[in-house]
Amino acid sequence: MTEYRTSGGLMSYGERGEGPGDPLVLLHGFPLNRKMWAPQVEAFSATRRVITPDYPGFGASPRPCAQPDMRYYAEGVLGLLDKLGLDRVVLGGLSMGGYVAFACLRLFPERISALLLANTRPDPDDEDVRETRRKMARRIAEEGVEVIPELQIDRLFAPEVLKNNKKVVEFVRGIMLDSSPDGAVAALGAMRDRPDSTDLLGKINVPTLVISGEKDTIATPEVMGEMAANIPGSHYHIISEAGHLSNLEAPEEFNTTLREFLEKV
Ligand code: MLT
């Protein structure tokens, strides 16, 4: 596993492929890690360099040392671009990865040549969601990461996928259990206190692809449609058979949509 130290701490990352286009950097959701991008790494590394960091406390990255904010994770991404000598990248994020992508847009917009926002939302948490995150953090701290699948897994998939695609559900369960309690609690705090990114949308001036899942109850197609409408010139695609983890639930449609987008940027 490749590791590097940044101003934000120590992070691990995966790297595969090469090609003429800007490298594709994919930011994972919560409480997952870079392995969630397996179908995209497989598909896109044939023609392009694909880089997938693990946030501190997830996957192979050591845990963070204090309560981070979203900027902390973006600093980690910036440190990785510097370490690899990458001037410009196509940046993609799913869910929490989208929240980190917004922080990256604030921190280093000049290094982002195109953007993918999947199953994410620009607005901050309301008080109910903040309270749910507090409770979840408490349970993880007291009982360990073993409680995560029970608390989270049903919310992440379209009902049909949950029922009929045990392979992908078990894959995600395994990824969740690779999280550290400190990493999960830290990410919950950072998501709970994340800033409103709605004001950022109108300032995005790079080609942007927005992908949602029709059955996503966390970042609903309505919220994402409004987000896309506020990003100048963005392309919006809804995957009808997917919930919150659209890249894993419908990898072929996700990859086709992303490929068509990348061919144009
Ligand atoms: C994620 O998939 O990253 C999380 O579900 C995002 C969230 O809880 O807001």
How would you explain this protein's 3D organization?
The protein is an alpha/beta fold and 265 residues long. It has a single domain, classed as Alpha/Beta hydrolase fold, catalytic domain (Rossmann fold), CATH 3.40.50. The protein contains twelve helices and eight strands. It has helices at residues 38-44, 70-84, 96-107, 127-143, 148-156, 159-164, 166-177, 181-192, 198-201, 221-229, 246-249, 251-264; strands at 2-6, 9-16, 24-27, 50-54, 89-94, 112-118, 208-213, 235-239. An eight-stranded mixed sheet has the order 1-2-4-3-5-6-7-8, with helices on both faces. The mean pLDDT is 96. Residues 29-30, 95-96, 191, 218, 244 line the site of D-malate (MLT). InterPro entries: AB_hydrolase_1, AB_hydrolase_fold, AB_hydrolase_sf, Epox_hydrolase-like. Keywords: Hydrolase. One of its GO terms (molecular function) is hydrolase activity. This is Hydrolase, alpha/beta fold family. It comes from uncultured Rubrobacteraceae bacterium.
